[in-house]
């Protein structure tokens, strides 16, 4: 099974500053047939279900603000929030779907306001 | 508009079987390539993928829970049922169902069903 490891476990960032969350997979999630990374990011606010932010490592889901961006390839990925807003306080998860239809999530990164 | 809603008991006793139903609208599981998946989250902990079923009635399970899980669909009722046998307090969690359009990521989620395992 592919193991997803996120860092840091928690992060405090000032409003308007950049937040960076990392995700590393134990095996590549780059699909050789189409050169796409099978990696998604979710945001989960307190008491709510997860919300899809990014898929394919870097494609924003419809309606997601452009301050959210994803980057990386192979085994190392990053979610960046360019200018932190108060409503971005949440836990963020990465998920691989390379080993479809068996999936796995990272352990989450808790993002707070400094 | 896609919606999903989980339903089932809030409390089960150890060794009992949990049965949860996901009722959805806005899409059909008879559409080729459509999947419904289940994910759970123990209190304060991370998401854990459990199982999925696709439009062809193919079923896939978390390898560590495979012997205890069963997933089934009723296309006519727009429902997917998950059963988890031999419940234990460590199975206490919020259980979510979600839609997967066949790409492997989950674009719509239910609000979750909170299940506590206690005698």
Features:
heterodimer; A: 114 residues; mainly beta; 7-stranded mixed sheet; 4-stranded antiparallel sheet; globular; B: 119 residues
Helix-strand layout with pairing:
The complex is a heterodimer of chains A (114) and B (119).
Chain A: E1 4-7, E2 10-13, E3 19-25, E4 30-31, E5 36-37, E6 39-44, E7 51-55, E8 59-60, E9 68-73, E10 76-81, E11 90-96, E12 104-105, E13 109-113
Parallel strand pairs in A: 2-13
Antiparallel strand pairs in A: 1-3, 3-10, 4-5, 6-7, 6-11, 7-8, 9-10, 11-12, 11-13
Chain B: E1 3-7, E2 11-12, E3 18-25, E4 35-41, E5 48-54, E6 59-61, E7 69-74, E8 79-84, E9 93-100, E10 108-109, E11 113-117
Parallel strand pairs in B: 2-11
Antiparallel strand pairs in B: 1-3, 3-8, 4-5, 4-9, 5-6, 7-8, 9-10, 9-11
Question: Could you explain how this protein is built, in words?
Answer:
The complex is a heterodimer of chains A (114) and B (119). Chain A is an all-beta fold and 114 residues long. In chain A, 0% of the residues lie in helices and 51% in strands. In chain A, strands 2, 6, 7, 8, 11, 12 and 13 form a seven-stranded mixed beta sheet that branches. Chain A has a four-stranded antiparallel beta sheet with strand order 1-3-10-9, with no helix packed on it. Chain A has a two-stranded antiparallel ribbon with strand order 4-5. Chain A is globular. The mean pLDDT of chain B is 96. Chain B has strands at residues 3-7, 11-12, 18-25, 35-41, 48-54, 59-61, 69-74, 79-84, 93-100, 108-109, 113-117. Chain B is mainly beta and 119 residues long. In chain B, a hairpin with a 7-residue loop joins strand 9 (93-100) and strand 10. Chain B is globular, with a radius of gyration of 13 Å. The chains are: A mainly beta (114), B mainly beta (119). Chains A and B meet through strand 6, strand 7 and strand 12 of A and strand 4 and strand 5 of B.
């Amino acid at each position: 099974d592919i193991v997803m490891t996120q860092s840091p476990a928690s992060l405090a960032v000032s409003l308007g500053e950049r937040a960076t969350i990392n995700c590393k997979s134990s095996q590549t999630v780059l699909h050789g047939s189409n050169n796409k990374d099978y990696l998604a990011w979710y945001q989960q606010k307190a008491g709510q279900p997860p919300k899809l932010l990014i898929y394919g490592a870097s494609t924003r889901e419809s309606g997601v603000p452009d301050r959210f961006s994803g980057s990386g390839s192979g085994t190392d990925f990053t979610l960046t929030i360019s200018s932190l807003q108060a409503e971005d306080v949440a836990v963020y998860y990465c998920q691989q779907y390379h080993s479809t239809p068996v999936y796995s999530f990272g352990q989450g990164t808790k993002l707070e306001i400094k | 508009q896609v919606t999903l809603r989980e339903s089932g008991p809030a409390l089960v006793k150890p060794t009992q079987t949990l049965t949860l139903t996901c009722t959805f609208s806005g899409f059909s599981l008879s559409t080729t390539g459509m999947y419904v998946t289940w994910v759970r989250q123990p209190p304060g902990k991370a998401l854990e993928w459990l199982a999925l079923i696709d439009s062809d009635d193919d079923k896939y399970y978390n390898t560590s829970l495979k012997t205890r899980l069963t997933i089934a669909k009723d296309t006519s009722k727009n429902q997917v049922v998950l059963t988890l046998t031999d419940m234990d307090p460590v199975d206490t969690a919020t259980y979510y169902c979600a839609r997967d359009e066949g790409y492997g990521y989950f674009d719509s989620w239910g609000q979750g069903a909170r299940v506590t395992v206690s005698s």
